[in-house]
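A common beginner's mistake is to predict each chain separately and then try to dock the pieces by hand. The better habit, illustrated here, is to supply every component at once so that their relative placement is modeled jointly.
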Amino acid sequence: MMGGREIAEAERTGAGRRVADASGGPDPVRTEAALAAGAAQGRARRAAKRRRTALVVLTQLVLVAGLLALWEYGVRAGYISGFLFGSPSAVWHFLVKGIADGSTFRDMYITSEETALGFLFGNAIGAAVGLALWYSPFFERVVTPFILALGSIPIIALAPLVIVWAGTGLASKVLMSTLSVVVVALLAAFDGTRSTDPLEMNLLYSMGATKWQVFRLVVVPSSLTHIFSGLKLAVGFALIGAIIGEFISSSVGLGHAIFIAGNLYNIPKVFSSLLATIVIALAFVQIVGRIERVLMPWRRIAR
Amino acid sequence: MADGSARTVKIEVRNVSMVYGDDSGQANLVLDDVSLEVRDGEFVTVVGPSGCGKSTLLNLLSGLIAPTTGSLALDGRKVAGASKNYGYMLQRDLLLDWRTILDNVTLGLEVRGTARREARKLARTYLRFYGLGGFEERYPSELSGGMRQRAALARTMILNPSILLLDEPFVALDFQTKLILESELAKSVAAERRAVLFITHDVEEAVSLSDRVLVMSRRPGRIKAVHEIRLDCDRTDPVSAREAPGFGESVARIWKQLEIQTSALDMESLRAADKTAGDAAGAAAAAGGAA
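With all components supplied together, the output reads:
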């Protein structure tokens, strides 16, 4: 080991480069080498990550293809009843046919419209009421049992009433969808208000804020996280409501198509409509995710 | 202080007792007949062992909870129900996650209805002053603990509060950051003659910053001693305060009065007591927020 004075001496004379490595300052050559090695390691890590992702996707594709092949083989070889379970080729046939004659897109459009409207109304009403319950603990205690009662009704049990009151057209499906969303949305929003940090509220009060300001500046934004986690659930609920509405009474929509095909034992057609339904559901979840990222930019960072 | 009587009392606690009753009817005395006064330009610190009710005192002053007996006033007005205007800093910075640093600093101005442009302009000045220039558009989650607490300090000082209630605001920071923020606080307090009630368990911090240190006893919390601190140095420099003659003696004297005990059994009972107080305060805060 060298003393501090010796190192200083060595550095001043430039003679100590080779011996200073034990306890001296950085050698530019070594620094460069370390930087290059670090960059290479980073590139290697990224490449490894890409390889892992590719492997996952590949495995998923192989899994699906394998299952489909097994299914098709089972039907053709007579191990599985094609009448009861359909077959991938038959499902494909109905998919192509539905796309060619436009019926699949029409059904998807109708069901999406019902789902989107029900989703919007249900969430708007639910979130507004859920947030407003924060304002009056008395009102909250009064209405809580009614909300829970409404939430506990299986949505399908309301269908006959909804059809009678709102007719067999778009309105009844939107109402079904709204009803199945509204309680979830309300509870999510209300949970959000309850989880507001009391110290953050007190900070606002310390600045002389009114209750309305505390509500607007703290309670609502801090509830957004809860509201958005509710939204993702609500996509499913909205779709269920719309499809049940179509099951009960309608002339178009994916629910209608599934219902009719099921009654006619047209299993491949049921599967092709189910696929279309899954596409809608995934699209909605994607859209909600986008909206969430736009509305809550602070969540994109460092989480 | 010689000129003390000429100054207005900004923070007043008079004969306050706090009892938490539980459902079984057992009464738990947390604060026992506590009285104190802070006049404008005065920096008063309360130190005490954990669980002595220091934070309860602050919750009472901020109106989160009501005292069992006694009265509290800020700026001559009773705490309960009065419209509030005081600076408030805790160990947690309470920056709102969904607002940028700039928008966090303008929060109080927004509450007061200051024009947005004017508020943002002022906030930029404060952020630069507290060394956060360039971080205006960042979110709190992107900043280090020390930077976040600076932003909280900027948010507090931008309102130019005549009263500051501070509950261990620097306790979670590293020593260097803590000294810097202490110094910034002390300068701002001295320049604007603010009245400060500072709560801490850090005796050195208390002595270096304060005109007066109140020592609280173990639960039930009572004020058992009052120390006037006179250090012959620049009080806005916490490093020179720590080197001033008399600093060490004051710290040692106060330490002795703190009755720090560390047997395992004692720690258990303290934790239990802390928990009851914390729960009660939390519940009261939730109820108060919604009321």
